[in-house]
Structures are given as C-alpha cells and as structure tokens.
C-alpha cells in the first residue's frame, strides 16, 4: 500500500496545493495560559511538529471576549494574540505546512464566570444543561441571554474582524466553526432556537447567520480560503438535540454552500451511536457527497484503512484526524510507512504545559529508544 494510498495523494484546494489528504482536525488544548490568552512557544512547537499534515486546522480560537467558554483557549481578537499566532504560522510554513485557524464562538456553552457575572449569549434563552470548563473547573451551564439583533450584527462583525486578524497573522485560511453545539449550530436547530424574528422560525431564517458570517468574512479575505465545519447528526452531546427539521436544515445549508467558492466543507460523521435516534442521518458522507460540489473533508473515528477507503469510494476528498494527531505528530509519515500508531492520553488533553502536548515522539525517535 506504500505511497499508493489515496490519503497520500496531493489535493488541489482552491488555489492551495495540499501535499496529502491527511488533515489535522481542530482540537482545543487549553494551553494559552497567559493574561492575553495568546499562543506562545509551546504552540509553535506543537503545530510545527504536525506540519506534515496536508492541512492543519487550528484549535478553536475565540473571535471576541464574549465568544469564550473554555479556560485557557487562545483568541484571535487582540494584537497580542495576532503576534502569538504569527509565530505559529511562520513555524508551520517554515516546515512546508499549511494552517487554517478555526473561528469559534461558543454561545450558550459558557458560564457567567467568563463574563464578569453576565450571562453568555445565545439565539434563545434555553439552557443546554451541559458543563462549562471554567477557571474553577467544570460548572453547570446556565440559561443564556437571548441575543438582540444588534448583538447578532456585532457578532458577525466580530467574525469579520477575527478573519482579518487571521490574515494579518499569516494563516492560509479560516474555518468557521458552525458545528458541535456552539453558537452557529445553536441557531440551526429548533430545540436551541425559538426566535420569532428573521433569525428564527423557518429553516432559511435559522441558517441566515452562517451566510451572513461568510459574506462578512469574504470582505476581508478570498472566498476560496474559507472553510465551514458542520456536524449534522450531533445528538445528546454539547446540549444538542435533533428534531424533525434538523436534517432538512442541513440539507438546505449544504445546498446553499454550493453558491460559494469555499476552500472546503468539513463534515463530521455522528460522534456517537445514533442508530436508534429518530431524525438522525447515520451516514453523513453518503448523504452529502452527492449534494456538495466543492472539496469535502470528512471526520470522526477514521483510521488509516477507513480513510483510504472513503476517498477511494469517492465519498470525500480528504480526511480529518483528531485524536490520532495528538499522539502521532508524524501521522502522515506513519501512514506512509504503514507504521504503528501511538495511543493518546486523554488525561492530558486539556492540562497545562508540554506534557501530552509536545512530548509525543515521532516514530523514528520511539524506534531508537
Ligand atoms: C481534545 C479535543 C479537543 C477538540 N476541540 C475541538 C475544537 O476546538 N473544535 C472542533 O471543531 N472540534 C474539536 N474537537 C473534535 C475533533 O475535531 C474531532 O471532530 C473529534 O476528535 C473526532 O475525530 P477523531 O475521531 O479523529 O478524534 C476536539 C476533540 C478533542 C479530542
């Protein structure tokens, strides 16, 4: 299978040529421990170590102070954050890699502790009954504040500002985080959005904010450097509940994304077993590959064999790997060698410092130990 693997073929993504189709999925690592929540040396090292990925999608980066919901996550709204990220992108480019930043607003998946005691913002005042990872540990979420139209418009501007900052910081592009139960996803589903204005009610209204965000970002960077992430069958995680209009809403969104010349659409297969869940689409790539005309990245629980297969079958153009990239910085080389993969240690996913972050060795190093 050496070097004839679909995963190892180049991929033309807009005007970018990716060296392979092994994408590093966005992963929050909660290590931006400084008053500015800016990336620093250990982030440069971490991303540089993984630069042989066809494309790195960074951890979620909050677009504003209001967008945060997890402790020690980096932002992309201040000058210090831009400076920090600049060194990260330079480090990755030096190694021949490419990197997009994930633009993140958690919406109701936050806690008043992050907002000087004020409530987090969301489409509607509905508690996700989930947990927020605050400076004092995990706390129960509270009922958020329903956003006013002005707050929605400001948030769209925050996305635009964050994208402009991303360009300043030297990123190759941005991924709009509209999945996993965060702000934009909260607008899509009827169980989290009961608004009666132009951002609620019909499917078109519930999807509106995503397209307004794309249109705003397009003003500051090329459309073909914008990616969109969606997780249509998310259920029972991050406060999301499927309803009978969820999949029709995603059908509408994905059809409409064809009107844009995006870098890619990044979809997740169901994160958990939804075989018994009403209204769940069980096979995301099968449903949406025929529908979406642009570059499609697929994610969740892929290994080398399944990744090669999904591309060979024409169901996706590239595969995003999350946890395997945590413990295998040289995942691409390991695939090329058909080498063994190291296991990840869940206990260090979100802990401070280099342990479990930059100390996973390459295969060549572990072989010589
Ligand atoms: C530690 C950790 C942090 C994550 N943080 C993010 C994130 O910031 N943004 C995002 O879209 N997904 C995030 N995810 C989800 C991953 O991108 C991916 O969808 C998930 O891990 C499934 O892929 P895998 O089976 O290859 O790990 C995270 C996952 C993990 C394990």
TrEMBL record:
Gene3D superfamilies: Aldolase class I (3.20.20.70). InterPro entries: Aldolase_TIM, OxRdtase_FMN_N, Oye-like. Residues 122-141 are annotated as: Disordered. Residues 8-338 form the NADH:flavin oxidoreductase/NADH oxidase N-terminal domain. Signal peptide: none annotated. PANTHER family: NADH OXIDOREDUCTASE-RELATED, NADPH DEHYDROGENASE 2-RELATED. This is Alkene reductase. It comes from Fontibacter flavus. The lineage of its organism: Bacteria, Pseudomonadati, Bacteroidota, Cytophagia, Cytophagales.
């Amino acid at each position: 299978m050496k070097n004839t693997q679909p995963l190892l073929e180049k991929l033309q993504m807009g005007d970018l040529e990716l060296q392979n189709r092994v994408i590093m999925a966005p992963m929050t690592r909660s290590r931006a421990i400084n008053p500015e929540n800016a990336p620093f040396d250990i982030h440069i090292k971490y991303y540089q170590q993984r630069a042989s990925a066809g494309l790195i999608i960074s951890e979620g980066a909050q677009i504003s102070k209001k967008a945060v919901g997890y402790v020690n996550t980096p932002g992309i709204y201040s000058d210090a954050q831009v400076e920090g990220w600049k060194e990260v992108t330079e480090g990755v480019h030096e190694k021949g890699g490419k990197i997009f930043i994930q633009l993140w607003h958690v919406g109701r998946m936050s806690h008043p502790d992050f907002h000087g005691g004020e409530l987090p913002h969301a489409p509607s005042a509905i508690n996700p009954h989930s947990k927020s990872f605050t400076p004092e540990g995990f706390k129960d979420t509270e009922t958020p504040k329903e956003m006013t139209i002005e707050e929605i418009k400001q948030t769209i501007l925050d996305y635009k500002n964050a994208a402009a900052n991303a360009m300043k910081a030297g990123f190759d592009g941005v991924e709009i985080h509209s999945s996993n139960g965060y702000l934009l996803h909260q607008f899509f589903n009827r169980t989290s959005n009961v608004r009666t204005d132009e951002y609620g009610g019909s499917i078109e209204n519930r999807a509106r904010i995503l397209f307004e965000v794309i249109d705003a970002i397009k003003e500051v960077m090329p459309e073909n450097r914008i990616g969109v992430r969606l997780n249509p069958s998310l259920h029972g995680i991050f406060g999301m509940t499927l309803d009978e209009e969820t999949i029709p809403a995603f059908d509408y969104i994905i059809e409409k994304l064809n009107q844009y010349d995006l870098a890619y659409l990044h979809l997740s297969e169901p994160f958990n077993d939804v075989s018994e869940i009403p209204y769940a689409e069980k096979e995301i790539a099968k449903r949406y590959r025929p529908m979406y005309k642009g570059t499609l990245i697929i994610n969740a629980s892929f290994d080398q064999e399944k990744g090669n297969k999904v591309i060979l079958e024409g169901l996706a153009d590239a595969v995003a790997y999350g946890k395997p990239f945590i413990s295998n910085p040289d995942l691409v080389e390991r695939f090329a060698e058909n080498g063994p993969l190291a296991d990840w240690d869940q206990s260090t996913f979100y802990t401070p410092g280099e342990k479990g972050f930059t100390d996973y060795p390459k295969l060549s190093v572990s072989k010589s130990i």
